[in-house]
Amino acid sequence: MDWDDARIFLAVYRGGTLRAAAALLQVDQATVGRRLRALEEALHARLFLHTPRGYVPTRAGEVALPAAEAMERAADQLERLTQGTDERVSGTVRVTTSDTIARAFIMPAIQRLREAHPDLRIVLTASTHLSNLTRREADVAVRNVRPDNPDLISRRLGRRELGVYASKRYLKEHGEPRRGTAFEGHAVIVYQRAVLGARSETICGEPYANARVALEVNSGLMMLEAANRGMGVAEVSTYLAQDAPGLVRIWPDCSEFYELWLVMHGDLHRTARVRAVADAIVDVFERGEEKAAPSRARKA
Questions:
Q1: The model's pTM
Q2: 84-133 pLDDT, tens digit each
Q3: Which of 114, 72, 73 lies closest to 93 in space, CA to CA?
Q4: How far apart are alpha carbons 139 and 68 in whole angstroms?
């Protein structure tokens, strides 16, 4: 099995279907199917069973997995090490973060990078999914979780605050919720459980067990939009709320905080183009651009 064959095998194993594998590899579905059949013929082994639920690995497929993953790690390391010696500020850098962080911090950084380094190409992914930096899904990430992988290096970018917000329209129609009632008689907008896990049962530490959940979102910008439209009470980052004049912060002493981390792979952080992107992001956070505009969200 060579590396090209291993890539096909791993994509089918992880995607579960030829279509999903093709999307992962950015090739057409027919190519994946043809190359998988050729690989099975070359190995004289059936690697997957085609079931109504998708492609399920056989015993041979399970045995082949560790070897294929080892080839992937070696290929990724080779790419990182060779790129780590590249001193040109040009080429592609993949950046991943949430949509809210992208809008407030990463976009200003990219704008400056484009002016200073026009040959640099940024691939930005805004998602709550934690991209795997060791598999080159991203070169630079801004996360609210500090990684524990020893191959990754991280730098603390700062701490951000969450507050409880509702629109002026919502408060006029429903009044302000009372502390200690678990939002009884109120509608709330919350994150999907997959985004926040157990913490999704509270808004800034206040349980919402007695509330009506009007909307579940997986995006901070959608949270902001729904709150601004008066759909309910929501937990919103203060740097977003300051630019939403229709929002009111209730219970100003009720807040939660989270830290943001810049994360890169240790083999890449000295690469000129990756370093340029990381420095630009750090500079935006240090300048505190989210505070440049005066806060317009009235406190109750």
A1: 0.64
A2: 555 667 888 999 999 999 999 999 999 999 888 988 999 999 887 666 66
A3: 114
A4: 22
- What is the amino acid identity at position 211? A
In sequence order, which ranges of the chain are alpha helices (DSSP H)? Answer: 3-15, 18-25, 29-43, 59-83, 99-101, 107-116, 168-174, 193-196, 220-228, 238-241, 272-287
Q: How far is CA 133 from the centre of its chain?
A: 12
Chain segment 170-229, per-residue pLDDT in tens: 999 999 999 999 999 999 999 988 776 555 689 998 999 999 999 999 889 999 999 999
User: Which residues are CB-contacts of 83 (< 8 A; sequence separation ≥ 6)?
Assistant: 267, 268, 271, 274
Domains in the chain (CATH in brackets) are 3-84 (1.10.10.10), 91-157+260-292 (3.40.190.10), 159-258 (3.40.190.10)
Q: Cβ(57)–Cβ(33) under 8 Å?
A: no
